[in-house]
C-alpha cells in the first residue's frame, strides 16, 4: 500500500456521502494503493489480504 492515512473515496478522512466513481474528482484513480475505500470500509485489496490470511491460518482451527 502507498496510502494508509486517508481513504480513496470522498475527501479521504471523513465520509461525506459523495458518490465515488470515475466522474467524482474526490475519488482516487487506483484503489489498490489505499487501505481504506472510505472512512470505514477497507478496499478490495485489503479485504483479500485479510480473507486469504483467515482461510490459510485461522479457518483450520474451526474445522
Write a structural description.
With about 60 residues, the chain is mainly alpha-helical. The protein has one domain. About 25% of the residues lie in helices and about 0% in strands. It is built from one helix and no strands. The longest helix is centred in the last third of the chain and has 15 residues, at about 45-60. It is elongated, with a radius of gyration of 14 Å. It starts with about 45 loop residues before the first helix and ends in a 5-residue tail after the last helix. The model has no long low-confidence stretch (mean pLDDT about 85). This is GDSL esterase/lipase. It comes from Ilex paraguariensis.
Work out the number of β strands.
0
Q: Give the count of structural domains.
A: 1
Largest sheet: none
Shape, principal axes of CA atoms: elongated
Residue-averaged pLDDT, rounded? 86
Q: Residue share in helices?
A: 10-25%
- Beta-strand percentage range: under 5%
Kindly provide the radius of gyration, computed on alpha-carbon positions and rounded to a whole number of angstroms.
14 Å
**Amino-to-carboxy terminus distance:** 32 Å
Protein name: GDSL esterase/lipase
Produce the secondary structure layout.
Blueprint: H1 44-58
Give a short synopsis of this structure.
With 63 residues, the chain is mostly helical.
Supply database-style keywords.
24% helix, 63 residues, elongated, mainly alpha
